[in-house]
């Protein structure tokens, strides 16, 4: 690995910024290319074949164009489906983002855990296998949200998003079966931590919201080896690319995710 590696972070939209900001904290010395495939957003609404056919060649083009040392698929909907295809097709190391079911179930005291993802992620065999392997004694409720990723994008762009809209998406996570109540909700879509303050405020009762982004950043730092850790700061270079070619209407709002430096491309 070069002393100052280039890391490509990929998502269907801006949700992957919640993963990027943790990686930037761990490796502020690296160069970053963030790609939002907004031309195909939302991934949660596409069938599996369509998503594989879209993402695998697109990542190949991005690797050829940007020559990253490591690629982070900062999207559960894509990672739970295409990671094995990407690893078979390209030599660069990949780090994925998959539902944090194991740590959530290990931490739950009531043994009632909900997994809040896109409709695509909760349907995946990959997600079902994580539950079979790691739920232990927990009852796991899968909640596929059709609209929360788009609401998070809208809020980040400065639009007002009503409490009722958010509550309708998260309400099925809160299960009280008479014996016990949900005490942990896995944020199984990288868009959802963008709304974390609202989720905490609107929750019918307090729960732990499990965001895997810090663990993903640690994995990236381990794979890269060496380098600078801990200190916050602006990265060597940071680019933001939308596959639609658009510019984000509130790009100032995006600066903190990049350690305060970003060049739109
Ligand atoms: N950010 C993506 C994820 O982690 C999904 C949003 C979408 O539906 O495109 O699953």
TrEMBL record:
BP terms from Gene Ontology: cell wall organization; peptidoglycan biosynthetic process; regulation of cell shape
Please give the PROSITE patterns that the UniProt record associates with this protein: ASP_GLU_RACEMASE_1, ASP_GLU_RACEMASE_2
Q: Please provide, alphabetically and separated by semicolons, the GO molecular function terms listed in this UniProt record.
A: glutamate racemase activity
Protein keywords = Cell shape, Cell wall biogenesis/degradation, Isomerase, Peptidoglycan synthesis
The metabolic or biological pathway listed in the UniProt record of this protein is: Cell wall biogenesis; peptidoglycan biosynthesis
One matching Pfam family, short form?
A: Asp_Glu_race
The family annotation for this protein states: Belongs to the aspartate/glutamate racemases family.
Protein name as annotated: Glutamate racemase
Protein source organism: Rhodopseudomonas palustris (strain BisB18)
